[in-house]
Amino acid sequence: MSKSTALKGGTGGGATAPPFATRRWALLAMSVGVFCIQLDSFGLNLALPEIGRDLHAGGDGLQWVISAYLLSTGTLMLGAGRLGDLFGRRRLLVTGLAAFGASSLVCALAPSLPVLVGARVAQGAGAALIMPVGLSLLTNVYPAELRGRATGWALGIGGVATACGPFIGGALTESVSWRAVFWLNVPLAVLGAVCAARTAESYDTSAPRSVDWSGLAGGTALLAALCVVIDRGPRWPWPAALAGVAVAAALLILFVRRERTAVHPLVQLSLFRNGPYMALTLAGAAANTTTVMFLFVVPLTLQGQWDLSVVLAGTAFLAPALAMAIAGPLAGRVPPRAAVRLMAGCLCGGALVLACLAGVSSLALYVAVATVGGAVLGVANSLTLIATQAVIRPERAGEASGVTKTVITVAAGLGVGLAGAVTDQNRGVGSEAAADAALLITAAGCLAACLVLVGWIRLREGRTRAGAGRPGG
Q1: Would you give the DSSP letter of residue 237?
Q2: Contacts of 98 by beta carbon, 8 Å cutoff, 6+ apart
Q3: Which pairing describes strands 202-203 and 7-8: parallel, antiparallel, or unpaired?
Q4: pLDDT in tens, the chain (473 residues)
Q5: Residue 8 dihedral angles phi and psi, to the nearest 5°
Q6: CA atoms of 314 and 43, how far apart (whole Å)
Q7: How far apart are CA 358 and CA 28, in angstroms?
Q8: Please, which residues have CB within 8 angstroms of residue 254's CB and are 6 or more apart in sequence?
C-alpha cells in the first residue's frame, strides 16, 4: 500500500481519518475475530466430557484443551501488539485470522488429544495477533470521539459468541460432534481476513521499524515460564514450584533491565507509570479471572447440579450470556473519567454475584442471578479494553493493548486452573461442594481487587486535592 493510503502514526498523530467504508471493514474484521476467539474459549466447556470419551482421554489432560489455548494467547500477546504498530496493523490482523482458521482445521481433524492440544496452541497464537492488533487498528482508524463506541460494538458483536458459545457447542456436540465447533471457525476466519484486507493499513511512524528482538524473546520466555507455573505449579512438589517462580522472577528482572537500556524498547516502561492505565488493567485482570470462572463453572453446574442435558444447559445459559454480549456497546459510552469508578463497582458486583450463585437453591433463581452477573462482568471486561485505549497515545496503541491483553489473559489461566477442580469427565462437574468452593474463592479475590482499587481512587483524589490546595496549584 502506498504511503498516501496508509495511516501514519494513527489518528492521534495528525493523520486524516479514513473514510467510513474503510472504518466499517476494520470494525467487521475485528468483530468476526473476537467472535471466533470467544466461541473457541467458551464453546467447548460443555463438550469436554464428549472430547474425553472420543479421544480416550480424561483427568487433568482434558484441561489442556482449554488452558493450552488461553496460555498460548497470553504468552504471545505482549509482542504481537507492538509488531502490529511497526509492521502494519492490517497485515498482522489478516495473518492472525489466517493462522486461526488453519489451526481450527487441524483441531477439527485431530485424531488424538496431543494433536488437539498442539493445534489449540496454534489457535492461541492466531488469537494473540487478532486481539491487540485489532484493537489498535480500531483506535487508529476511528476519530477520538468514536473510538470507544466502535470498540464497544466490536466487543459486543464478537461477544455474541459468548452468548451462543455454550449453546452452539452443546448443540453441535450432541447432534453432530464436538469437531463441528472447529469446522465453524474456518469460514468465519476466512470472512474476517477478507474484511481486514479491505481496510486501510496503519503504522506507528513515530518510531523506526526496528524490533527489540532481545526484549521480544525475553518477554515471551518470561510469560511462558509464568504461564506454566500458574497452570501446572499447584500440581508440582513445592521445590519444583519454587524453582519455577525463581526462574520467572529472574526472567522478569532481565526483561526490565533490557527494556531500560533499549533504544527502541518493545514496551516503554513509562507505560507502567500511567496510573489510570495500570489501575484499569489490573482491575481488568481480576474481572477476567472472575469471568472465566463464571463462564466455565455455571454451564457445567447447570449440567451437573441441576441435571440438565447439554442442549438444555446451553439454552439456560443463553440469558446471562446475552446480557454479557449487550454490555459491550454500553461500556463504549462510558466517559473515560468515570471508567475507574465504574470498574470498582463492577468488581464489587461480580463478587456478590459469585457468592450468591454458591448459595441459591432453585434453578430459576440461579439463572436470574447469573444473568445479572453476565451484565456486570460484561461491562467490566469491555471497559478494560475500551478505557485503557483512551488513556494512551494512539500511535502506541498496539503496545498498550498487547500489555493489557497479556495481563488479563494470563490472569484467566488462574480461573481455568481453579475451575478445573470441578470438572468431571462423565457428568460435567465433580460435586456441588467443589463448584461452590471455587466460586467463593474467586468472589473473595474479586472483592479484594475492588477494595484495592477503591483505595487507589481515594489516594489519587487526596493527592489531587492536596495539589490544588497549594499556592498556584
Answers
A1: -
A2: 126, 189, 193
A3: parallel
A4: 433 334 545 444 434 556 667 788 999 999 999 888 888 877 776 678 888 888 887 666 777 887 788 778 878 888 888 888 888 899 999 999 999 999 999 999 999 999 999 999 999 999 989 988 988 898 888 887 888 888 888 888 777 776 677 677 777 888 888 899 899 999 999 999 999 999 888 887 776 777 888 888 988 898 888 878 877 777 788 888 899 899 999 999 999 999 898 888 888 888 888 888 998 999 999 998 888 888 778 877 887 788 887 778 878 888 888 888 888 788 888 888 888 899 999 999 999 999 999 888 899 999 999 999 999 998 998 888 888 888 888 877 888 888 888 888 777 766 666 665 555 544 444 467 777 888 888 899 999 999 999 999 998 888 877 776 666 54
A5: -105, 110
A6: 10
A7: 38
A8: 218
What's the DSSP call for residue 422?
A: G
Q: Are 153 and 35 in contact (CB under 8 A)?
A: no
Cβ neighbours, 10 Å, residue 472: 3
Backbone angles phi, psi at 253, to 5 degrees: -60, -45
CB atoms within 10 A of CB 68: 22
Q: Which three cell numbers stand for residue 150?
A: 466502535
How many other β-carbons are positioned within 10 Å of the β-carbon of residue 111? 8
Which pLDDT score, from 0 to 100, does residue 20 have? 65
> Long-range contacts for 301-309 (Cβ within 8 Å, ≥24 apart)?
301/366, 301/422, 301/428, 301/429, 301/432, 301/435, 302/366, 303/46, 303/427, 303/428, 303/429, 304/424, 304/427, 304/428, 304/429, 304/430, 304/432, 304/435, 305/429, 305/432, 305/435, 306/363, 306/366, 309/174
* Cα separation, 51 vs 58, whole angstroms: 9
Q: What is the pTM of this model?
A: 0.77
Phi-psi region of 471 (alpha: psi -120 to 50; beta: other; left: phi over 0): beta
Give the pLDDT of residue 188.
92
Give the DSSP H or E segment for 202: strand 202-203
Identity of the amino acid at 65: V
